[in-house]
Amino acid sequence: APVVSVRDLRKEFRRADGSAVRAIDGVSLDVAPGEFVVLLGPSGCGKTTLLRSIAGLEQPDSGAIHIRGVPVYSSDDVIDLAPERRKISMIFQSYALWPHMTVFQNVVYPLKNAPRPRLSKTEMTERVSYVLDLLGIGQLAGQHPGQMSGGQQQRVALARALAPQQDLILFDEPLSNVDAKVREQLRLELLSMQAEIGFSAIYVTHDQTEAMELADRVAVLRDGRVEQIGSPHEIYSRPTSRYVADFIGTSNEVTGTVEEVLDSGAVRIQTAIGPVLGGDVPGTVAVGDQVVLLARPERFRLEPQAAEPNGPNSWTVEGDTTLFLGAHSQHIVRLEDLTLRVWSADQTSVQRGQSYRLSIDPAAVRVLPEKPKDQ
Ligand code: ADP
Ligand code: MG
After folding, report:
1. Can you name the residues that pair with 267 across neighbouring β-strands?
2. Which CATH number, 3.90.1640.10, 3.40.50.2300, 3.40.50.300, 3.20.20.210, labels domain 4-243?
3. ABC transporter domain spans which residues (predicted)?
4. What are 177-213's pLDDT values in tens digits?
5. Is 11 touching ligand 1 by the criterion CB < 6 Å?
6. Are 47 and 39 in contact (CB under 8 A)?
7. Which candidate among 83, 100, 152, 307 keeps its CA 20 to 30 Å from the CA of 162?
8. Ligand closest to the CA atom of residue 172
């Protein structure tokens, strides 16, 4: 049974001018035991409101939330359990540590204030030492948070969330206030702690790298709705909308009209750059449909112009510039009015104004219906 189950949840806020914001607009979501689910989306898409509703810090308008099979919120049954009765740990973007308390006192606090039966004093001390050591800050137990770096403070906040050893922990952008290097390290530590302790997690972020790295499943949110949910690999390689393809990774896009559906299932599409064959067609399309074609930058081949055309999706393009990005280079090339981004491990730069041959396997061209809301 899922640890968390959210059904058709809705929550509206009133703005000062009286207009309504649908912060959560019909979300359903399950989190399996031990699963790490990341809620990903731009600022304002409803991530925090959803998380706070699960924690009991925000009262939804309608829907239902079950935690460990127990209804904690249900508009039908008029249930709304207080946060402390939901047995969840939560950690926020601001560390929210008490400056007048030592690290030890900060971390032991939720244990001392837990509902009965409580741990003994010895057990509490052992528990705090255990999580502080796990996070590599055992030596800071007697210090005050004010004297520490952002990374150390966030470790203390993590320790405080882990100490009660709840089987469910909610994270609201906990790493956005720490430096990139520390953030990277804390992500890895978070994963190894999860492997060690085995909690389920719902983790909010607007950072796609963070989402890809941490998640068993990513739920991409858009305007208070789940646009797509799946493993990082699924979300990256099989996005179901332009919104998701743009939010996760880089995508080249061109719109067109379906001209022919081939026996193989591939489709020929008339576009501003001529006919394109798309072989990755998740839905049904018919002749005359408006579609958008998506291609990841690493799926193209860029060669000297002298190369023979290979296959149907082959064009002569004009070089613009190359950006060296370390592990790969990003080549910017132009084709008619399109600017395309092509990635390769090859570090030779394209020359501005020079002609090149660009090609792509039809299997790497994803064909999605062009929904009006995606435009
Ligand atoms: P996110 O965490 O993804 O940035 P939020 O859940 O904070 O998004 O906000 C979702 C939407 O609800 C936004 O439009 C935000 O302005 C609005 N909102 C959130 N909290 C309140 C509130 N207390 N009063 C009015 N509007 C709110
Ligand atoms: Mg937020």
Report:
1. 261, 278
2. 3.40.50.300
3. 4-248
4. 788 888 888 899 899 889 988 999 999 999 999 999 9
5. no
6. yes
7. 100
8. 2
The model's pLDDT over 106-135, given as tens digits with 9 standing for 90+, comes to 999 999 988 788 999 999 999 999 999 888
| Residue range(s) in the chain whose domain bears CATH number 3.40.50.300 | 4-243
338-344 and 290-295 beta bridge pairing: unpaired
Cβ count near 320 (within 10 Å)? 16
From 12, 13, 57, the mutation candidate for ligand 1 (largest count of ligand atoms within 8 A of CB) is 13
CB-based burial of residue 105 (10 Å sphere; 0-12 exposed, 13-18 middle, 19+ buried)? middle
ipTM: 0.99
Q: Is 60 in the pocket of ligand 1 (CB under 6 A)?
A: no
Rg of the chain on CA atoms, in Å:
25
Does ligand 1 lie within 6 Å of residue 19's CB atom?
Answer: no
Quick check: CB of 43 below 6 Å from ligand 1? yes
Question: What's the half-sphere exposure (Cβ side, CA atoms, 13 Å) at 104?
Answer: 11
| Residues in CB range of 281: below 8 A, 6 or more apart | 265, 266, 267, 366, 367
φ/ψ of 39, rounded to 5, equals -95, 115
Q: Give CA–CA dist 76/61, Å, rounded.
A: 11
Q: Quick one: tokens of 284?
A: 């049904």
pLDDT on residue 373: 52
Its pTM stands at: 0.91
Residue 91: helix, strand or coil by DSSP?
Answer: strand
C-beta of 57 in contact with ligand 1 (< 6 A): no
pLDDT tens across 200-246, in order?
Answer: 999 999 999 999 999 999 999 999 999 999 999 999 999 999 999 99
